[in-house]
Specification:
Elements (H helix, E strand, L loop, with lengths): L9 E8 L4 E8 L3 E5 L3 E5 L4 E8 L3 H10 L2 E10 L2 E8 L1
Antiparallel strand pairs: 1-2, 2-5, 3-4, 6-7
Length: 93
């Protein structure tokens, strides 16, 4: 993007958002700074202000099936080799 971002002015933080049931990765300003992105403008940060860089969601099977129904989809396959992860295939309902 051609930004003049200073990595040393930020630190990485990972926080659990219980309300949204997800992990959020943040960059937190450690000092006042300004980042300029050509074509987008300048953004000023005070110490403690954050930029959300990633959201990691984990879902239970019943939650996934509900989300699929709301999107007009149905669960077609559920492949699970590890207790913490699954590969899921959806099809039109």
């Amino acid at each position: 993007l051609g930004a003049d971002f200073e990595p040393e002015a930020f630190r990485h933080r990972a926080v659990y958002n219980a309300e949204a049931d997800r992990i959020e990765m943040l960059l937190e300003a450690t000092r006042a700074c300004t980042v300029t992105i050509p074509e987008a403008g300048s953004f000023s940060f005070e110490p403690g202000e954050t930029i959300r860089t990633e959201v990691s969601c984990k879902y239970r099977r019943d939650t996934i099936e509900s989300m699929f129904r709301q999107a007009g989809l149905a669960l077609d396959r559920w492949a699970r080799a590890d207790p913490g992860f699954a590969l899921v295939l959806a099809r039109p309902a």
